[in-house]
Amino acid sequence: MTETLSKFQKIPDREPPSSTVGMLAWVRINLFGTTTNTITTLLFLYVIYLFLPPFLDWAIFNANISGSDRSVCDENKSGACWTFVKVRFEQLLFGLYFATNPDQIWRPITALFTFGIILTPLLFEKTPFKKWLLLILLTAYPVFFIFIVYGGAFGIPVSDTGQWGGFLLTFALAFVGIVLALPLGILLALGRRSQMPVIRALSVTYIEFWRGTPLITILFMASVMLPLFFPSGVDFDKVVRAMIGITLFQSAYTAEAVRGGLQAIDKGQTEASMALGLGYWKRTIFIILPQALKISIPAIVNTFIALFKDTSLVSIIGLLDLLKMSQSASRSLEWNGYDIEGYLFAGFVFWACCYGMSSYSQKLERKLDTEGRTE
Amino acid sequence: MTSASASKKSTKNQISPIITINKLNKWFGKFHVLKDIDLEVNKTEKIVICGPSGSGKSTLIRCINRLEVHQEGTIIVDGTELTDDVKQINEIRSDVGMVFQHFNLFPHLTVLENCTLAPIWVRKKSKLEADELAMELLTKVRIPDQAKKYPGQLSGGQQQRVAIARALCMQPRVMLFDEPTSALDPEMIKEVLETMIELAESGMTMIVVTHEMGFANKVADRVIFMDEGQIVEQNDPKNFFNNPKSDRTKLFLSQILNH
Ligand SMILES: Nc1ncnc2c1ncn2[C@@H]1O[C@H](COP(=O)(O)OP(=O)(O)OP(=O)(O)O)[C@@H](O)[C@H]1O
Ligand SMILES: [Mg+2]
Fold first, then answer.
1. Minimal Cβ distance to B104: which of A268, A291, A370
2. Pairwise pLDDT comparison (A262 vs A112), residue with the higher score
3. Best residue of A267, A269, A276 to probe chain B, by most B CBs closer than 10 Å
4. Which of A271, A279, A372 sits opposite B104 (nearest CB)?
5. B27-60 burial, b for 16+ CB within 10 Å, e for fewer?
6. Three-state secondary-structure class, residue A319
7. At B133, is the pLDDT very low, low, confident or very high (cuts 50, 70, 90)?
8. Which of A68-82, B178-192, B218-232 has the weakest average pLDDT?
9. What are the φ and ψ backbone dihedral angles of B216, each rounded to 5 degrees?
10. Residue range A114-137: average pLDDT?
């Protein structure tokens, strides 16, 4: 029986040619593969050569960090004055109240540190009870934050929110904006796709109104107009006003991001869950939202990143967020003239936070991708 | 035909209708998709619906669990008339299983979770009970070893069998199938049809939209031919295939059988 059939011979697997694997091959193929490629690479290297060494000299090698006043910096003008950032560090991070009350500074430190402690395990895949941790972060943590940073209970003195500032304020505004805008945005996105005309019209109106208004205007309105709607006795906290404005504004953007995800879900998913007898909320919570939110993660995080940066607009209503604080500190008499360092520091902190959010969202996207939807 | 004598009173009689459709009319906008449909389906009866594309087959069975809303006529499922009452609709839906052409499994849930979600949240079963029942039914459709996988990791035939198991986990009184095999590769059609034949043998009431005439021949008590939103002809499979009464049926049969 085998006489007429030739026997199948397996060709043994071989390594790919060495000229196509490894670092050097990658560089040769990707950076110098074609003439255009080579020119681009060389131009790029030249630009780096022009700007990077002088910058590094200024920012690192010639920089000043010693001392506690401007004398060191004034003597050596060829380097950055990190002494300024060092001396004003507490002020830049936590604002004037905590900078001027060193015995209270443990409060914002504890608050931010606790945030880090809850957040870090959430970043790792293998952590158990993630859902509960997230729930704690979104519910118990804000209460804890108010208790410890605002104070007023358990013998902790009140720190007036008007005195909050720096990174602490930026963090508080962004955190509240993000945490409250997400559920609100989800409801709005669902409302916009509702079968009920009234709910749909209300959602659309809300979303389009807030999306069409610049945040600056909203902050102005929140600070000037909001008090008009309340009896004169009610004095709204400035920070709370900003938080309300930011949340209302942000929820419209979150809603649009979520709507994109909702639209991407196949109609068959709704039909299958309807056919099983699941009511609207059950199929929304168990079937539609988990899939829609997953798809909208990049868009949602984009809105978070935009919000985080936009919080610096609160300076317009007289709040000293990280950016404004850096500016005003570098314009004080003692440090006049060192604003570049202040801006760089603020910029770096903003960048680090936004980059963190961005890379986490990419990681999450890859992890949640059980269907091979992306790539 | 069988049910002419069955009265409106549904006693525990074998031939009492579980679905009664009376003068059903439906429009999509101005387009009249279903015209004066009358249909009674008895307990344990197996009905195959066929007809050319666009004739309204899907729309008809989707009206039975109100995935589509009709404008005229009545549909009574298991003694309850379909109205706008959301609670009633959900009750009827939980008693009527449906299997779709494109499976529509929930991709973010495992096979087991796909099967237990509705029993837990609609039937209020405990997770343990639901798991047990799901494993039993997954065993029946011969994929118990895939329970922990996600739908995306299964072949089309396996996915459709999961979809059948998912519907059966609600312990429905009627099963609706909308072209369950037409999205499948030929080698997988057989495994799904076998599962459906076993289900039919177990006594389930089934309404199946399909062009699998072998299946119709073997399982159906009645074959219904639809065209232009009307029921053109219905008969037992033998007579339906061998001496169709309408020229339209004849043409249709010659087209699909010579294919
Ligand atoms: N949601 C809808 N809106 C408007 N028209 C629709 C809608 N759904 C179906 N139709 C139309 O109604 C008619 C009947 O559709 P239906 O899906 O019931 O046909 P079918 O017999 O199942 O066809 P097929 O074999 O292609 O599945 C078709 O002409 C279709 O274009
Ligand atoms: Mg169809």
1. A268
2. A262
3. A276
4. A271
5. eeeeeebbbebebbbbbebbbbbbbbeebbbbbb
6. coil
7. very high
8. A68-82
9. -60, -45
10. 80
Q: How far is A268 from chain B (nearest CA, A)?
A: 5
Pocket test for ligand 1, best of B27, B30, B53, B101 (most atoms within 8 A of CB): B53
Question: Mutation test of the interface with chain A: which of B106, B122, B177, choosing the one with the most A Cβ atoms within 10 A?
Answer: B106
* Contacts of A333 by beta carbon, 8 Å cutoff, 6+ apart: none
A289 contacts in chain B (CB < 8 Å)? none
Fold of A84-95+164-368: MetI-like fold (1.10.3720)
Locate the ligand 1 atom nearest the alpha carbon of residue B55 and give its number: 21
- For residue B155, give the 3-state DSSP assignment: coil
C-alpha B75/C-alpha B65 separation (Å) is 9
Percent of chain B residues past pLDDT 90, beyond the cut: 78
> Considering chain A, what is the average pLDDT of its residues?
82
Q: Per the structure block, which two tokens stand in for A95?
A: 């604002």
Domain ranges of chain A: 17-61, 84-95+164-368
Which range (A199-208, A250-259, A360-369, B76-85) has the least confidence?
A360-369
Task: Please report the residues numbered 240 through 279 in chain A whose beta carbons come closer than 8 angstroms to any beta carbon of chain B.
Answer: 266, 268-269, 271-279
Nearest to A141 by CA among A116, A123, A166: A116
A208-252 residue pLDDT tens: 998 888 888 888 887 777 777 776 666 677 888 888 888 999 999
Contact A276 B118 (CB under 8 A): yes
> Under 8 Å CB-to-CB from B115, ≥6 apart: which residues?
B130, B134, B137, B138, B162, B165, B166, B169
Distance between CA atoms of A304 and A310, rounded to whole angstroms?
Answer: 10
Å between A374 CA and nearest CA of chain B: 14
ipTM, interface predicted TM-score of the complex: 0.89
Residues A130-150 have a mean pLDDT of 81
